[in-house]
Amino acid sequence: MPRADRRLLRFIDALLKDRRPRRGPAGDDLGAMQLASQLRAAHPGSSEPSPEFVDGLARRLRREQETADSFQPRRRQFLITGLATAAAGIGAGFGLERLRDTLTETPSGSSLSNLIEPNWVAVAKLADITPGKIQRFSAGGVEGFVFNVGDELRALSAACTDQGCILHADATSGRLACPCHSATFKLDGKPDRNDYGYPLTPLPAIEVRASGDDVEVLVPKTA
Amino acid sequence: MREVSGTPTPAPLRVVGASATAGVDWETVYRNHVTAVYRYVYAQTGNRPDAEDVTSTTFMRALPRLRPEVSDGEMRAYLRATARTVLADMWQQRHRATNDLIDEETMSGTLTAEPATEVDVDYVLADLPDNYRQVLEFRFLRGYTIKETASAMGVSIANAKVLQLRALRRAAAIGRPDAPS
């Protein structure tokens, strides 16, 4: 039996015994492994947390909170140290102002920028972002592209909304292409090629502005 | 579970049980959200030890960092985003893909980025040939052993093993341009 088959079999066996799968490269089977996890979760009753776990974690959180209470100033410090996590979440495909839209569950009119500290960061020289050029940037945990369309600056997340692969820019066609499953996006963020059986969500927009000679994007402030 | 002021401006929401001196009652927040986070995480990991670890890490990271006045919806969104990050770290650390899928340059972005897109299991299954759908239903939804599955389908154990792998790969590739047939 091929190695990849044995690996996937071991993975399935672990899940069906409710055990942690072994470490090891996923190869081409990352999608199959993730789907196996989702199918497993559809097994009735399997995805409820046990009362012991819920209570145990509550105790841990209480201890953490008590420790935290002994440090001052508290809030500010937590906000700053928390940014790396928040930034990674955003890098995973959420734009600052788009998180709420993506998750659709926020009832109030506020956005993620209420939770983390946004920060304008220079990522390119204005003179370099000529029409037709698409420049990659990485700032505040956000992977993105900045470009110029009709003399208007725009920025988009560079993470494919399918599985988060980092897109490649094709300035000639004006498309952002995913190396993983061949999806492409237009420069307005909308999915272009859609050979999938389900629609991909558009790429989140990132706020961008010109400031002096620089092009700046709004990303989470990092400590 | 929360009080909402009557003002028309974005209402500051606060968690019932929060005292003026102790800040938010984190435990109330935790109890309100833990089941939803766990279910989400379980659907991405498919096993209890991982689901418990990821859920724990998510709350340990996220709870102290939230401003006390955030709404339930924002809390849910932030917990979800944190869980996704923790999950992505787990997938990368455990199943770091070799370069047969992607090159080294895109590596970091690829697996750190996102756990699997949430799928509609019924939709995926409905699109499969009968024997593929059956083997996945028996194994995953009903929890049959490979022997029970083989017996129920009238095939050999070796056949059932291979069939479940093919079915899983086909299902994972449904709709993708490079789908194996």
Which characteristics define this entry?
heterodimer, A: 223 residues, alpha+beta, four-stranded antiparallel beta sheet, three-stranded antiparallel beta sheet, 6 helices, flat, B: 181 residues, mainly alpha, two-stranded antiparallel ribbon, 8 helices, disordered N terminus, disordered C terminus
Record the strand order, biggest sheet of chain A.
Answer: 2-3-4-8
Radius of gyration of chain A, taken over Cα atoms and rounded to an integer in Å: 21 Å
Considering DSSP H and I runs of 4 or more, what fraction of the residues of chain B is helical? 55-70%
Q: Report the sheet with the most strands of chain B, covering strand number, pairing sense and barrel closure.
A: 2 strands, antiparallel
- Count of alpha and pi helical runs of chain A: 6
- Name the average pLDDT of chain B: 73
Termini separation of chain B comes to 50 Å
Morphology call of chain A: flat
| Annotation, overall tally of beta strands of chain B | 2
Structural category of chain A: alpha+beta
Q: How many helices of chain B in DSSP terms? A: 8
Question: Radius of gyration of chain B, Cα only, in angstroms?
Answer: 22 Å
Please report which band the strand proportion of chain B falls in: under 5%, 5-15%, 15-25%, 25-35%, 35-45% or over 45%: under 5%
Low-confidence stretches of chain B: 1-23, 97-114, 177-181
As laid out across the biggest beta sheet of chain B, the strand order is: 1-2
Task: List SSEs of chain B in N-to-C order.
Answer: EEHHHHHHHH
Strand content of chain A: 15-25%
Describe the fold and architecture.
- The complex is a heterodimer of chains A (223) and B (181).
- Chain A is α+β, with helices and mostly antiparallel strands and 223 residues long.
- Chain A contains six helices and ten strands.
- Helix content of chain A is 30%, strand content 22%.
- In chain A, helix 1 (3-16) packs parallel to helix 2 (30-41).
- In chain B, strand 1 (2-4) and strand 2 (13-15) form a beta hairpin.
- Residues 1-23, 97-114 and 177-181 of chain B have low confidence and may be disordered.
- The radius of gyration of chain B is 22 Å and the shape is elongated.
- By secondary structure, chain B is mainly alpha-helical.
- Helices cover 62% and strands 3% of the residues of chain B.
- The interface between A and B is large, with 94 and 97 residues.
